[in-house]
Amino acid sequence: MAIATDSKESKDNKGFGSAVTNEWETPDFINAQKRLDKVAQHMKLDNNVIEPMRHPKRSLSVVVPARMDDGSVRTFMGYRVHHDLALGPGKGGLRYHSEVTLGEVASMAMLMTWKCSLMNLPFGGAHGGIRMDPNTLSKGELERITRRYTSEILEMIGPTQDIAGPDLNTDEQTMAWIMDTYSVNKGFTVPSIVTGKPQYLGGSLGVLQSTGYGVALAARRAATFAKLKGDSPAVVIQGLGHVGSSVARNLSKAGFKIVGVSDAFGGLSNAKGFDVEDLMAFIDKNGAMYEYPHADKVSNEELLELECDILAPCAVSSQIHAGNADRLKCKVVVEGANSPTTPNADDVLDGKGVIVMPDILANAAGVTVGYFEWVQGLMRLLWTEEEVYQRLEGLVNNVCTKVFEVADSQKLTLRMSAMSIAVERIVEARRLRGLYP
Questions:
Q1: 349-382 b/e with 16+ CB inside 10 Å = b?
Q2: pLDDT in tens, 211-250
Q3: Which of 311, 363, 405, 406 is the most exposed place for a label (fewest CB within 10 A)?
Q4: pLDDT over threshold 90, residue 318
Q5: What is the pTM of this model?
């Protein structure tokens, strides 16, 4: 069962077009709209130009029935959203979480539009999700749910339509199931329907560590931009998961001092700095970090307020908000997660002189290497890991330099600078393509 919605416009009292269907207008999506409206005001964009970008191009809601291991049948809500496709096919992750909503997925799709545009990738913004708790399901149940979800959204996806990748609680195995389901329905193997898949199925070398590697690279560039003093900046990382652990390892190797880490249940602090590899070995052995002997226990809230040079939120959205932004003691925020800072918190941090390296730049390495994988799949040609990282560093460094230059010349925050570059590219693409009919 599928429920499709397309943005249709009608006049309101202010004379703007507004979408008739607004199920996606949750706090997540409204925050994404606020960021767009703010940059549109700075760029002096006409309302007729900006209005189509304030809403998803299309959204699909599907009911996903699946047979459980005990023989019962349960249903789950699934979503896939295309925000803007002016630059190319949709590209975006797929997340599994018990609180996934259409609004959250739509906000991530909009974020992907700006991220792909900023990195000059030939993609538009898309995203998807299924509302469920994967931790309560078996591997067999997850496979059946994933395959049924894929079959329900077949009309929206394809290597030239919409390419999925891993996100919250999904991984290379999830992508393999999607690839196989899509390929079975088409009658031949289609590697470029997903990115982040296993290397045996055409996954790119370097893709699993790319996001964390890129966040660490962005942190190094941000440290230089902020003119941080000393050879070993202190770093706090919220969320020591797949991305956060890679950030910790890469920054530690670069000489940064990791003084705070956390996961969903709490955190640790050590003002003298962690031996990152020793900490990771302890977590691998014990399954948790809390009894690590060389640290003090802190809550996630306390972790964010630790004194440091760089704070890297790598967990979930809206962790830095108006209620805690004024208590942060960092000089730089590097957004490893998507939308970890709310628009209201941005204003507070700007007033405090805290530099924010925005998510659309800081964690864009993931979609960038996803693009590399997509290209390799279309060409049936695999690059070496050295080639992948060389191309990635070149792109990230070039975009960082451009964002810094615009920020300096126009006296903008890094987020406003990055958004200006991204939105300008979309606006120009839309102008050249025109409005049909």
A1: beeeebbbbbbbbbbbbbbbbbbbbbebbeeeee
A2: 999 999 999 999 999 999 888 999 999 999 889 999 999 9
A3: 405
A4: no
A5: 0.91
- pLDDT of 4 > 50? The answer is no
| Rounded CA separation 64/111 (Å) | 26
Average pLDDT in the chain = 92
Opening angle at CA 366, ends 361 and 369, nearest 5: 115
Tell me: the pLDDT tens digits for 15-64?
333 444 467 788 889 999 999 999 999 999 999 999 999 999 999 999 99
Q: Which of 97, 65, 59 is nearest to 80 (CA)?
A: 59
Q: Where are the beta strands (DSSP E) in 217-348?
A: 234-238, 257-263, 266-269, 296-298, 310-313, 332-334
Closest CA to 129 of 157, 163, 164, 162: 164
Give 284-305 pLDDT, tens digit per residue. Answer: 998 888 889 999 999 989 999 9
d(C-alpha 389, C-alpha 218), whole Å: 14
Q: Strands, E, within 32-123: which ranges?
A: 58-67, 73-84, 90-97
Which domains, ranges and CATH numbers included, belong to the chain?
A: 2-201 (3.40.50.10860), 210-362 (3.40.50.720)
- Find, among 28, 30, 34, 39, the residue nearest to 413 by Cα: 39
Tokens (6 digits) for 168: 């919250």
User: Which residues are CB-contacts of 131 (< 8 A; sequence separation ≥ 6)?
Assistant: 76, 77, 78, 97, 98, 99, 100, 101
Please state, in angstroms and rounded to a whole number, the distance separating the CA atoms of residues 157 and 60. 11
Residue 190 corresponds to which tokens in the numbers above? 């289609």
DSSP3 helix / strand / coil % (the chain, rounded to 5): 45, 20, 35
Please, are residues 215 and 365 in contact by the beta-carbon 8 Å criterion?
Answer: yes
Distance CA 79, CA 347 (A): 32
Encode pLDDT of 131-155 as tens digits: 999 999 999 999 999 999 999 999 9
Which helix (H) or strand (E) segment holds residue 39: the answer is helix 27-43
Please tell me the number of Cα atoms within 13 Å of 399 on its side-chain side: 32
